[in-house]
Amino acid sequence: MATLIFPEHPSPVADAEALKKAFHGWGTNEKAIISILAHRNAVQRKLIRKAYEDMYAEDLVKRLESELSGDFEKAIYRWIMDPEDRDAVLLNVAIKHKPTPDYRVIVEFSTIYSPEELLAVKRAYQKRFKHSLEEDVARHTTGDLRKLLVAFASPYKYAGGEIDVKLAKSEADMLEDIVKEKALNHEEIIRIITTRSNAQIVATLNNYKDNNGTAITKHLKDDPANEYLAALLTAIRCINDPRKYYEKVLRNALNKSGTDEDALTRVIVTRAEKDLKDIKEVYYKRNSVALDHAIAKETSSHYKSFLLALLGKED
Amino acid sequence: MATLIFPEHPSPVADAEALKKAFHGWGTNEKAIISILAHRNAVQRKLIRKAYEDMYAEDLVKRLESELSGDFEKAIYRWIMDPEDRDAVLLNVAIKHKPTPDYRVIVEFSTIYSPEELLAVKRAYQKRFKHSLEEDVARHTTGDLRKLLVAFASPYKYAGGEIDVKLAKSEADMLEDIVKEKALNHEEIIRIITTRSNAQIVATLNNYKDNNGTAITKHLKDDPANEYLAALLTAIRCINDPRKYYEKVLRNALNKSGTDEDALTRVIVTRAEKDLKDIKEVYYKRNSVALDHAIAKETSSHYKSFLLALLGKED
């Protein structure tokens, strides 16, 4: 379930006017901006952008960028765009991340988004960057990591729930052999994880667990220096349980000395209209602390207010 | 340009009735079937199927299968289905081809179809076979051929016409080095050919030709035993000039002792509503024989009449 609280039929014209007023004069009224934008769903935000452009012949996104700054600006920017546009931008930033691409975002979107959602993001990516996503991923990566990430970014996966039990068994055996031989960059692992449907992969991983008494993740040693392996582990976590995965991203982002605002913003902004309520529950269960409290402790000012509003805090 | 000749507003009900009549009694009236179906476009054929089903509570496709036989039956079957369904079936047959998959169909569709057309076929494939195309390609291939074919079947390519001239130059140099080192299964070749937009690949290949005085195809030795290389060459031909490629498929199909009806039917049926007229022109230029005549010479009976009708022969 989502956390976003929004009225049913707000007036885009009134919202555009209120935003214009918030930009007016000395300083910006961030509180007013939050009280509107943090309580509108994606369609409503799109209508506000349109009304604002029509009424003031000015691009709302650009105006917000010039009015705001820091993590708050970044968060608002990620929130005000169309979701598929925003995700395309997040992917492009991840691909161009130095010194090496940030595989997390690529793996996260490729494995957790439905094939249709991912396709919408890929369309937006092409429109904006005049290249395909897979093309840019391939261009900016090398070696085993490239093989894996291109294979994640490319397919149009099957999203059906049917499971081939025999196949799950045979591919679990295949994975077992590969793990035994420590050939962890084996093309069959990549094939199974990147082309099979998520339901089929979960069946295969469960089979593996049943046969071995432990999950395959325990057999893939987490070595931060080995980005290929780290990406593979991330993918398995995402496929196995997206909410648990997001909880971990949030936990790491908040526990890091110096908070990882990019990761924090990404999860809140991309999940507020989807399953952030469930992620909050998983977070509480794991940390015995409410996600809102943890975020309030590690962030400040308008950025904090904005995230908490997206998390469902009533004004 | 297309070759198909069809009336603007035929009556699906009258067509369904005429087909029913053609099935009636002793023997089938193949001529009547051809006179209708070979002169209806994809939407019109769909409406006939629907009308027939509504009127006679019978699946027209199945009925046709039971009434007809041989190459004619196969051709009608490929023609009466929705194009994306037909292509999904053609791909599935190609993937399951023994002893090894028929890479031609996979490469042809992946490189010549627009990204949106290919996506429609992939959707139809999943609906029909409950697996993704890439999943099945990966499952039924091995080695370098697998790498190449999965990489063709997977991406959602960029279809825009923009060309990055600097990139074309640098990737042409890259290809040159790879050809010199005879490392023809190099991952960079696969990356360039399978992820770059067709316009970009053509620019790169032209660059290669300018630098080397010969096309890269001359440097990739055509070795029928090396299916990977054969598939790569097929792809380059498809991307460089689809019409020339189709001409060659037709020429080989017709010149073969024992005619390759599957290839012949595939090209006629998949291109009759697209660019078969242009392919005919290329064929005539290359062979000094009209395609219609060549086909008339190598085929017979209803199969012949049907193909010629699709090729634009007036009744």
TrEMBL record, chains A, B:
Belongs to the annexin family. InterPro entries: Annexin, Annexin_repeat, Annexin_repeat_CS, Annexin_sf, AnnexinD_plant. A pair of annexin repeats may form one binding site for calcium and phospholipid. It comes from Cinchona calisaya. Ca(2+) 1 binds at residues 23, 25, 27, 67, 256, 258, 296, 299. It holds the Pfam family Annexin. Ca(2+) 3 binds at residue 298. SUPFAM superfamilies: Annexin. Transmembrane segments: none annotated. Gene3D superfamilies: Annexin. Keywords: Annexin, Calcium, Calcium/phospholipid-binding, Metal-binding, Repeat. This is Annexin. GO terms for molecular function: calcium-dependent phospholipid binding; metal ion binding. One of its GO terms (biological process) is response to stress.
